[in-house]
Amino acid sequence: MTRLILLNGPPGVGKYTLASRYAAEHPGTLRCDIDVLRTMIGGWEDDYSGAGALIRPGALGLITAYLRESGDVVLPQLIARATELAKFERAAGDAAAGFVHVLLLAEPETCHARFEARGTDEPHLRAAKQTVDAAGGAEVVAGYRQALVELAADRPEAVQVDASGAVDGTYAAVLTAIGDLRPA
Fold this sequence. Notes:
alpha/beta
């Protein structure tokens, strides 16, 4: 059975880094990055959030088709609303695939510091940084973290992973959380 592995968490927690590593170490796994896909929408630079809303249905279709026909999908995406989360669960179900929700958490200060330190050489990273900074920076990161904690309180199947330490330790914890006991 294929799986949709959602790596959820606030900005700067390490979703993209962990998803990239997972896909690299698990050949055939699709790393579906919606933030990259949104840059394929004309005018995305002028409406980053709007482009995200436009691409989500396409991303869901891509995820469903890949799960059904090809293999696992790892999705590094902040999803803080239950209604949006349900769409991704449904996509996995429509493909007769498993759904694993991993919630990566670190203190807001840690996430914000990482978010500020990461490079902005890729357009989607630059746009995400500008969007978060314009909305309030550290307060936005803390707000997302709180919303995710509240979402997880209603979703006991979400596996919480402490992402405050080094990448290798967090990655090992993610592998354990999703039941991947193969050596990395």
